[in-house]
Amino acid sequence: MDTDLRSLTMEELKLFLKSLPQGRPEFSRTTAPADGGPSSRPTDKPPLACSSGSLLEFRAAQIFEWLHKHCAGSFDDMTNLPKVLREELKKVASIPKIKTSKKLQSSNKDAIKYLFETDKATIIESVWMKYSYGSAVCVSTQAGCRMGCVFCASSASFSGSLPAGDICAQVYAIQRDLNERVSRVVFMGCGEPLDNYDNFLAALRCLNSKQGQNIGQRNMTVSTCGLVPKIYALAGEGLQVTLAVSLHAPNDQLRQRLMPIARKYTVTEVLRACKYYGDKTKRRVTIEYALIKDVNDSRECARELAGKLRGAMFHVNLIPFNRVNVERGSTIAKDFLPADKESAENFTHILRNSGIPATLRRGLGEDVDAACGQLRSY
Ligand code: SF4
Questions:
Q1: Ligand 1 in contact with 152 (CB < 6 A)?
Q2: Atom of ligand 1 nearest to the CA of 191
């Protein structure tokens, strides 16, 4: 099977190049022949010249730049590679493509939802979002999601995890379409990034690479529903990305109603892992909380949440619950409504008065099903 080159990190790409048949030296030095002919001659098989040393580094950097900086779609685009290497790559490797199948802009133009189709006919959703400080792209890491959160349309189906190259390609395609550099990436689209840990991490490293788009780690956020062992693993990767944890309830009883993962990990265990991540990375962890009318938006919930978050480096993002299209979304979510303005503001004030930094966010892209909880793969 062809190796998907865009899914390889720089280190993996070097290993891949080393594994290729290298051929013989381009010119065989010979002693001058008696008849006075040339002292060197071309061989029938020119070298790939990328088995080790600085040439290997050089070739890997060239290819990586083509894939992640210039977003090349074919090996023929890689004009500064020797033809023999391009031909060899064509035989053993591929550059999977994604094409835009739909593009929907929100009425106030602050969000654009993209539907991309991969070579394998998988549909991926991504969202470009405009903020006062710039724009960000929300990428999907899976086609659908198997975590089953009842308020989220992504949980309606699951058709697989995305390779790293398809995660990166979402950023490159939006960048090309809008003709603007993407400087912030949030791993918050369809899927649970930590359920696709290795591919998510490889994508993050490729996007962050100086030989690629050089998107700063501090400008990246990864969202999880609370896969506790993976939060500890991520804390040990030596990264500086922001961790956002979807909590959505202050206690286990309520959280288990909303998120099946809560049956596996308690609120206490999730918050302990978040605190560890914050201590280890010195990054403030974001707690995501979607306010659902008469479900988790009461003053009691706010006080209970404040009590659990006190004393650690957390910031709470309060998001108005976004209604999902019930035809396509979870069956339970159809009963849910967004919290009204007054309870959302009360909730925010209770947290702030308890010393917990909290922001009540505006919804983005709800009219094109591009807001939090509304994405799914079709
Ligand atoms: S909220 Fe996140 S983890 Fe839960 S179903 Fe949706 S995409 Fe998956």
A1: yes
A2: 7
Indicate if the alpha-carbon torsion angle 100, 105, 106, 109 is positive or negative. Answer: positive
List 88, 125, 192, 288, catalytic entry: 125
Q: What is the pTM of this model?
A: 0.89
Is residue 138 annotated as part of the catalytic site, yes or no? no
Cβ-count burial of 12 within 10 angstroms (0-12 exposed, 13-18 middle, 19+ buried)? middle
Q: Any residues with CB less than 8 A from the CB of 335 and at least 6 apart, and which? A: none
Residues 6+ apart with CB under 8 A from 160: 122, 142, 143
Q: Which of 141, 151, 154 to mutate to test the pocket of ligand 1 (most atoms within 8 A of CB)?
A: 154
Residue 206, ligand 1, Cβ within 6 A: no
| CATH architecture of the region 98-368 | Alpha-Beta Barrel (3.20)
How do residues 311-365 score in pLDDT, each as one tens digit? Answer: 889 999 999 887 776 554 445 567 889 999 999 999 999 999 999 999 998 766 6
C-beta of 322 in contact with ligand 1 (< 6 A): no
- Residue spans per domain, the chain: 1-20+49-95, 98-368
Burial 346-369 (b: 16+ CB within 10 A, else e): bbbebbeeeebebebeebbbbebb
Beta carbons within 10 angstroms of residue 226's beta carbon: 26
Q: Tell me if residue 301 is catalytic.
A: no
- For 161-172, the pLDDT digits (tens) are 999 999 999 999
Fold for 1-20+49-95, please state it.
DNA polymerase; domain 1 (1.10.150)
